[in-house]
Every structure is written in structure tokens, then in C-alpha cells.
Design a protein that fits this description.
The chain is mainly alpha-helical and about 70 residues long. Helices cover about 60% and strands about 10% of the residues. Helix 2 crosses helix 3.
């Protein structure tokens, strides 16, 4: 680990975080659906950075895998 914060960030955040627009495009759904998922806590987990919502790509992958497992079990 380094003492320089910017180098720590670069080393610890390999993927850029996704925006709600990215999620909407990824799943071919309207942006309103992404916001509804967030409000109902049924979509991929997001977090706030100030007034902006961001999604960790790794968390989105886990959410998709869970959706696939749930769908195949039904």
C-alpha cells in the first residue's frame, strides 16, 4: 500500500463505477425502471456519491448471477 491517496485509489478501483444511465443501457430498460429498482431495492445495489448514484460493476455482476439463479430455480 502506498502513502499517496491518488495511487491508492488507482490501485484499489480497477473498474469505473457505473451510472444509472449505464445500468439502463446495459439492461435495455428505461431510466425510470432503474430508479424504481433502487427505490424498491430490487435492482443492483447502488450508493450515493454526493447527489449522484453509482454502481460497483462487481456488485452488478453478483446481482445478475443471483437473478439468473433465481430465474432458473423457478
Amino acid at each position: 500500500m502506498t502513502d499517496k491517496p491518488i495511487e491508492t485509489l488507482r490501485a484499489g478501483l480497477p473498474d469505473p463505477y457505473l451510472t444509472p444511465e449505464d445500468i439502463a443501457a446495459m439492461f435495455s430498460v428505461p431510466i425510470e425502471t432503474v430508479y424504481r429498482w433502487r427505490k424498491q431495492r430490487t435492482g443492483p445495489p447502488g450508493f450515493r456519491v454526493g447527489r449522484h448514484v453509482r454502481y460497483d460493476p462487481a456488485a452488478v455482476r453478483v446481482w445478475v448471477q443471483h437473478q439468473e439463479a433465481t430465474d432458473s430455480a423457478a
